[in-house]
Amino acid sequence: MNLAKGTRWLALGLVMGVGMSATASAEFAAGFQAALTSAERPAQDKERDASRKPAEVLDFVGIEAGMSVLELFAGGGWYTEVLSAAVGPEGRVHAQNPERLHERIGEAASERADRLGNVDVFYTADNDFGLSAQVDVAFTALNLHDYANNGDEQGLSFLGGIYAALKPGGTLGMVDHVGIAGQDNAELHRMDANKARELLTAAGFVIEAESDILMNADDDHTLGIRDPAIRYNTDRMLIRARKPE
To answer: Which end of the chain is more exposed for a tag (fewer CB within 10 A), N or C?
Structure first.
């Protein structure tokens, strides 16, 4: 990490006065750990637990048993499964994907949802998620950069849809690949942490805390996220923000 270049996002967070070690007190549903090791959970998902640290991340965000969670751009469903286990049978996970992915992932996503039992899978053509002020928590991992790198308007539209779906006082947990300001983050599929903070604040969120749980000091932020040297183990920011009451 090169502090002289201003790339150390954690240091920047400290300068901003953001609580870096603060965690939300979360109590997962009974059986959370058993669900992570279940024979029904895909082996390739389990292999990624070491770098994604599901229990630590969801605890920091404040996911609890019985909550309703909107998962944005759920993709293949790695986080869908751990969110499902955390909220348990009394909770609900609304797993959203863009409509353009429906044909490619729809069958597998539906099969996973059927197996888990507390997941709704849905697809949207825009950032109206149809859940006005209905969910306790929203969670998006490794997606904000895809919107923000196409311009602030797209980033704010995505975050605005999330804001609308959250209940007053609801929480947003956001994970993304750390990038360096001034480099081609669109090409690298990364984003500058200061830009993430700026967009979150502009969308109306209050940033509560940031965490170094997913930090990787060996990532110098110059490689694309799919480069074999860094794939699945990038330096990632983790931010918890709140919609005001």
So the answer is: C
